[in-house]
C-alpha cells in the first residue's frame, strides 16, 4: 500500500491530460481465423468480426466478461434485435454491425479509461479516508493470494499497460471476490473504515454459458437474444453502464433492468492510479450488490435451479438461483442442465426443478423456426468460478466446451435431447459400477475403499470423455437417436468392461484369496476378486441393458432382471453377451447396424 498523486499531464507535467480511448486504442485480445493473435479496439473488433475466431484473454472468465461487454454494445447500438425476423436479417447481412461505428463515436467519452470525470468502469475521485492506493493484485485475478509461485506475475503486479488494466477493470466488476473491503469516503455502508462482505461480482455467482459459432461474428449474433423471446424481460429502461449517470461511492439499492444492464453491472467501485507509462495502483471498494434470487427472466447466460431452502425461508415458490458449475464434472456430464426443456411437465405446478439457460431457449427457437439448420454445430462453452473461504479467494476456474448439433434443442422433436441426456446417465451408471468394483476389490483385501473407488471413477470418466463428445457431435447426422444411443451403450459396455478387467488383473493374490464380507442385510459372503467380478458384470448389465437385443427399449429405461445377489443383498443381472461384447469397429457413432431402422425424423 502506497500513497500517490495523479500527474496532470501526459508525461507527468502540466499540459494535455492523458487519454486511453477504448473505441480506437487496441486492448481486446483476439484470435484470427488464420491463427494469428492481436489486440484490437472496440471499433476494430466489430468491423473485423467475420475474420476473427474468438476473444482471448488471460483467463476464461476474462473472455466471458469481455464477450458480455461486446454483446451489450451490440444490443445497444442495434437497439435490438426486436424480434426473430429482425435477427434473421442481421444473420444474413454481412455488414450487420455497421451501426456500431456511429454508436461508439457517440459514446466515446464514456469509453475513455483515463477520463477525468467519467473514466470507463471507474469512479472519479474514489478514495479511502487515508488516501490509500493498493497493489494491482486486487484486480488481477491470476495472482492467487498466498500462492504466488503458481503465477507468471510472481510475487505481485507492480504495473499494467493501459490495455491490460482495461481488461481487468471489466473482469473485476464481473468476478471480484467477496470479503471485507476498504471503505470509501462517501459510502454510508462503511463501518470502522471497512465494508463487510456483499458478495462476489455478478458473473461470479453464475454458471456461465455462451454459444460459439465459427467466427466471432457468428458468436455475437448467436448470443444476441431477441427482445420478444418468451420468458425474458426486456425493460424500456434497459441500458449498459456507460449510458447511465456516473456513480459515486456506495449504492442506491437499485436492481437490474435487463440483459444490457446485467452484462455491464457495476458491482465494484474502482479507480486506477497511473502515470504516462501505465497503471501502477488501484483503489477498490464495493459498488452495487445484486441479489441473484429469481433473476432468471433477465439473465440469459446461466442455468437455474429451484432452491427449497430459499422457498422455505421466504415463504414463496418457486425461488430460482443460478446453477453454478462443478469443477469436478466435465460439461457433458451436466448436459441435462443445458438441454432440459423449460416446458417439460414435471408434475410440479410451481415449476420445474431446473431451467436451462434462456440463451439456449433462444437457440432452440432459432432451430424450431428453421432459422438455423438441424445439422448446424455450435460449441456450448461453460465458464465459471469456484470460490473458497467465504468467497474471499478464487479456488478454481471452470472452462469447458461441448460441441453439439442444434437439433438437440429442437422443441418439437425432443427425442435427440432425451437420448443425449440418457447417454450421459448411461456413462454415469457404468462408471459407478466400476467404482464399486474397485471398492469390492479393496474390501476383499481389507484395504481402505474410498481412495480406489474415487480413482477408478475418475479414470472411467476420463476414458469416456472424448468418445461421448464425438458421439454427441455425430447426432447431427444420426437418422435414429435411439439406435445412436444403443451404439453409445455398446461402447460404454466395452470400455468400462475393459477397465474392470485391468482392475481385477492388478488386484493381486490377496484379492483372489479374499475374506468374509457381511452385506447390508446381515448376510455373509466369501468376497474375493472372482465374486467382485460377477457383481461388477451384473451391475454393468443392469446399468446398460443389452443394446444388441432386438427388444432393446427405445427409452431411457434399462432392464433390471434379478439374477445374482449383490454385495448389498439385492439381486443384480448378468451380461447377456459376456463381459465385453464384440470389439468396436470404430469410434462411437461410426458403427452401422445390420439393419437400419426407419429414420426417426
Question: For the CA atoms, what is the radius of gyration?
Answer: 28 Å
Share of residues in helices: 25-40%
The total strand number stands at: 17
Question: Rough shape?
Answer: globular
Number of helices: 15
Bin the strand percentage: 5-15%
The profile of the biggest β sheet is: 3 strands, antiparallel
List the topology elements.
Elements: E1 28-32, E2 37-40, H1 42-47, E3 52-55, H2 60-78, H3 84-92, H4 99-106, H5 162-175, E4 181-182, E5 194-195, E6 208-212, H6 216-222, H7 259-263, E7 268-275, E8 278-286, E9 304-306, H8 308-314, E10 320-322, H9 335-339, E11 354-355, H10 358-368, E12 377-388, E13 393-405, H11 415-445, H12 450-473, H13 481-505, H14 509-513, E14 515-518, E15 524-527, H15 529-544, E16 564-565, E17 571-572
Antiparallel strand pairs: 1-2, 1-3, 4-5, 6-12, 7-8, 9-10, 9-11, 12-13, 14-15, 16-17
Helix pairs in contact: 2-4, 2-5, 11-12, 11-13, 11-15, 12-13, 13-15
Amino acid at each position: 500500500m502506497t500513497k500517490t498523486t495523479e500527474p496532470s499531464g501526459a508525461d507527468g507535467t502540466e499540459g494535455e491530460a492523458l487519454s486511453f480511448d477504448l473505441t480506437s486504442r487496441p486492448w481486446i485480445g483476439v484470435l484470427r481465423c488464420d491463427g494469428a493473435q492481436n489486440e484490437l479496439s472496440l471499433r476494430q473488433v466489430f468491423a473485423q468480426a467475420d475474420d476473427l475466431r474468438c476473444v482471448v484473454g488471460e483467463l476464461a472468465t476474462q473472455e466471458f466478461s469481455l464477450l458480455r461487454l461486446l454483446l451489450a454494445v451490440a444490443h445497444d447500438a442495434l437497439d435490438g434485435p426486436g424480434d426473430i425476423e429482425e435477427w434473421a436479417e442481421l444473420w444474413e447481412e454481412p455488414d450487420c454491425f455497421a451501426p456500431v461505428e456511429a454508436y461508439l463515436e457517440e459514446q466515446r467519452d464514456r469509453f475513455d479509461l483515463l477520463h477525468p470525470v467519467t473514466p470507463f468502469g471507474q469512479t472519479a475521485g474514489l478514495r479511502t479516508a487515508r488516501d490509500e492506493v493498493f497493489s494491482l493484485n486486487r484486480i488481477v485475478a491470476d495472482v492467487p493470494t498466498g500462492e504466488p509461485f503458481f503465477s507468471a506475475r510472481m510475487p505481485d503486479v507492480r504495473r499494467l499497460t493501459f490495455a491490460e488494466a482495461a481488461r481487468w477493470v471489466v473482469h473485476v466488476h464481473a468476478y471480484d471476490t467477496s470479503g471485507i473491503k476498504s471503505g470509501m469516503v462517501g459510502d454510508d455502508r462503511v463501518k470502522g473504515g471497512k465494508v463487510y462482505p456483499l458478495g462476489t461480482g455478478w458473473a461470479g455467482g453464475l454458471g456461465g454459458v455462451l454459444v460459439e459459432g465459427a467466427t466471432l461474428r457468428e458468436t455475437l449474433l448467436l448470443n444476441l437474444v431477441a427482445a420478444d423471446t418468451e420468458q425474458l424481460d426486456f425493460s424500456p429502461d434497459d441500458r449498459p453502464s456507460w449510458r447511465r449517470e456516473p456513480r459515486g461511492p456506495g449504492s442506491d439499492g437499485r436492481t437490474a433492468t435487463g440483459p444490457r444492464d446485467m452484462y455491464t453491472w457495476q458491482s465494484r467501485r474502482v479507480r486506477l492510479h497511473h502515470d504516462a507509462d501505465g497503471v501502477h495502483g488501484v483503489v477498490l471498494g464495493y459498488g452495487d450488490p445484486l441479489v441473484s434470487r429469481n433473476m432468471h427472466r433477465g439473465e440469459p447466460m446461466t442455468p437455474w435451479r429451484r432452491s427449497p431452502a430459499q422457498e422455505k425461508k421466504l415463504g414463496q415458490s418457486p425461488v430460482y438461483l443460478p446453477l453454478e458449475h462443478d469443477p469436478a464434472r466435465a460439461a457433458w456430464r451436466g448436459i441435462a442442465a443445458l438441454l432440459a426443456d423449460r416446458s417439460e411437465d414435471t408434475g410440479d405446478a410451481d415449476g420445474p426443478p431446473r431451467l436451462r439457460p434462456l440463451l439456449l431457449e433462444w437457440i432452440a427457437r432459432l432451430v424450431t423456426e428453421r432459422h438455423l439448420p438441424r445439422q448446424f454445430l455450435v460449441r456450448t462453452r461453460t465458464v465459471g468460478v469456484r470460490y473458497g473461504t467465504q468467497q474471499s479467494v478464487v479456488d478454481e476456474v471452470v472452462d469447458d466446451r461441448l460441441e453439439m448439433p442444434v437439433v438437440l434443442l429442437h422443441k418439437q422433436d425432443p427425442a435427440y435431447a432425451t437420448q443425449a441426456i440418457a447417454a450421459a446417465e448411461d456413462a454415469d451408471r457404468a462408471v459407478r459400477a466400476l467404482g464399486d468394483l474397485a471398492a469390492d476389490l479393496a474390501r476383499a483385501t481389507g484395504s481402505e475403499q474410498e481412495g480406489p473407488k474415487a480413482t477408478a471413477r475418475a479414470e472411467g470418466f476420463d476414458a469416456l470423455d472424448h468418445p461421448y463428445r464425438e458421439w454427441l457431435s455425430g447426432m447431427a447426422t444420426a437418422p435414429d437417436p435411439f439406435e445412436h444411443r444403443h451404439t453409445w451403450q455398446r461402447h460404454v459396455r466395452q470400455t468400462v468392461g475393459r477397465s474392470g478387467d485391468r482392475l481385477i488383473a492388478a488386484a493381486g493374490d490377496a484379492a483372489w484369496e479374499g475374506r468374509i464380507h457381511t452385506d447390508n442385510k446381515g448376510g455373509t459372503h466369501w468376497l474375493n476378486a472372482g465374486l467382485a467380478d460377477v457383481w461388477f458384470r451384473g451391475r454393468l448389465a443392469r446399468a446398460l441393458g443389452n443394446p444388441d437385443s432386438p427388444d432393446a427399449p427405445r427409452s431411457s429405461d434399462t432392464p433390471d432382471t434379478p439374477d445374482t445377489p449383490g454385495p448389498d443383498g439385492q439381486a443384480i443381472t448378468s451380461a447377456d453377451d459376456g463381459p465385453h461384447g464384440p470389439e468396436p469397429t470404430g469410434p462411437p457413432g461410426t458403427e452401422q447396424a445390420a439393419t437400419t431402422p426407419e429414420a426417426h425424423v
